[in-house]
Design brief:
The chain has a domain of 212 residues: Ribosomal Protein S5, domain 2 (2-Layer Sandwich), CATH 3.30.230.10. It is 40% helix and 22% strand. The longest helix is centred in the C-terminal third of the chain and has 26 residues. Belongs to the GHMP kinase family. GalK subfamily.
């Protein structure tokens, strides 16, 4: 597995030569993965968001080719060969569901739809080490492709949140995945050693330095080895529909809310639970998670500011229990991974990550406990989930910048 920028340059150059693509003298754009500290599944419910960029990346080596064609090769999906298309001339939305090419197609489609003039094509090769499911591989790729396509065509974007909107549109409107904006925000704006705080009320981004030593802990992705379907085929879509439906039901009942996040007052929450707790128990469970998660969110922010990573981990664990029992978005392999690492001293908190069902869990771990945690996973997870004994992986990560462009490596 490629882990470093110089190593990635060597791999990208090799892939380009083998596939007849010219990136010599070009640039590398690197986009990170992300780790949500809170509120998971909060973006489409209107909550504030907090998270970090993590050092599992997608590297894209690229150079303008003087034509109106894009030619790309992915080292992660070599069987697809070189993907080639003319800018603005791509398949219709949701017509290529089984190919990674739907992402560059989608970027070209959305940029054209939004009025951006694309005339300059490029050759590119891509390689990534972000695990599938839970650490936002699709958002990382979409952002990388959008920024690359805009740069090559000399288009500057003053409002960075517009990039977020475009990336979401690629997934929502072209691919058909009903994602929110948590992933895109946490990757695009991520800074080394910082937590990123997003407030949807005014669409503001602020940075929260960790109040202690960032080297005392690690962010760990626990890839279960399972294949997670796209969000459009998962429980994520069901949960999002449930939350939207409950908001409409509450509005019809005279409650002046726009999202479940608007239910912050204890008296209001109690009134809703009394009225709908029996008739719509499942929907009230979804609300309960969002209501409690928002209260935990502000406590976690304070703990982060003070450098109290132990308390951050405890809240992360509490959130995981809520996602499992109230939001009911987790999956058996995800919970097995959590059960295994929870028993290790120095693991401060753990829960499922991302869209749910399959993919990866995550943990906040003291740096000196990572090796013991890996040993526990190597023993416990294959024993409990033998079908994935040769597929799972543990990714110990640091907090890093979300986006970086490098020149002089190709």
């Amino acid at each position: 597995m490629v882990t470093h920028d110089k190593e990635s340059a060597s791999v990208l150059n090799g892939m380009a030569k083998r596939n007849g693509l010219d990136i010599v003298g070009g640039k590398i754009r690197r986009s990170s993965s992300r780790f949500c500290l809170g509120v998971e599944h909060g973006d489409y419910n209107g909550t504030e968001l907090f998270g970090v960029g993590t050092d599992r990346f997608i590297w894209l080596g690229y150079k303008p080719n003087g034509t109106d064609k894009v030619r790309m090769f992915s080292g992660n999906f070599p069987d697809d060969g070189v993907v080639e298309f003319t800018l603005g001339d791509v398949p219709e939305p949701q017509s290529t569901p089984d190919s990674w090419a739907r992402f560059p197609y989608g970027v070209s489609y959305i940029l054209k739809r939004e009025g951006y003039e694309l005339t300059q094509g490029f050759d590119a090769v891509i390689y990534g080490n972000i695990p599938g499911g839970g650490m936002s591989r699709s958002a990382s790729l979409s952002l990388n492709l959008i920024l690359t396509m805009l740069e090559v065509n000399g288009i500057e974007m003053g409002d960075q949140l517009k990039i977020v909107d475009l990336a979401q549109a690629v997934e929502n409107d072209y691919i058909g995945s009903p994602c929110g904006q948590l992933d895109q925000i946490m990757i695009l704006f991520a800074k080394e050693g910082m937590g990123t705080h997003y407030n949807p009320a005014d669409r503001s981004i602020s940075y929260v330095p960790f109040g202690g030593d960032v080297d005392e802990f690690r962010i760990v992705g626990l890839d279960t080895g399972t294949d997670r379907p796209g969000l459009e085929k998962s429980t994520y879509k069901v949960r999002r529909t449930e939350c939207d439906d409950f908001v409409k039901l509450l509005q019809a009942g005279g409650y002046e809310i726009e999202s479940l996040a608007d239910v912050k007052d204890e008296q209001l929450y109690g009134k809703i639970m009394e009225q709908f707790g029996e008739s719509h128990a499942d929907l009230c469970d979804r609300l309960t998670y969002i209501y409690k998660a928002q209260k935990r969110f502000y406590e976690m922010m304070e703990a982060w500011k003070k450098g109290n990573i132990k308390r951050v981990g405890e809240i992360f664990r509490e959130d995981g229990i809520g996602l499992r029992d109230e939001y009911k978005i987790s999956g058996p392999e995800l919970e097995t991974m959590c059960d295994v690492v929870r028993s290790v001293e120095g693991v401060l908190g753990e829960r499922m990550l991302g869209g749910g069902d399959k993919g990866a869990s995550g943990a906040i771990v003291k740096a000196d406990a990572v090796d013991e945690m890996k040993k526990a996973v190597d023993v416990g997870y294959p024993r409990s989930r033998p079908d994935y004994a040769d597929k799972y992986a543990v990714h110990s990560c640091k907090v890093v910048d979300g986006m970086k462009v490098m020149d002089g490596l190709l």
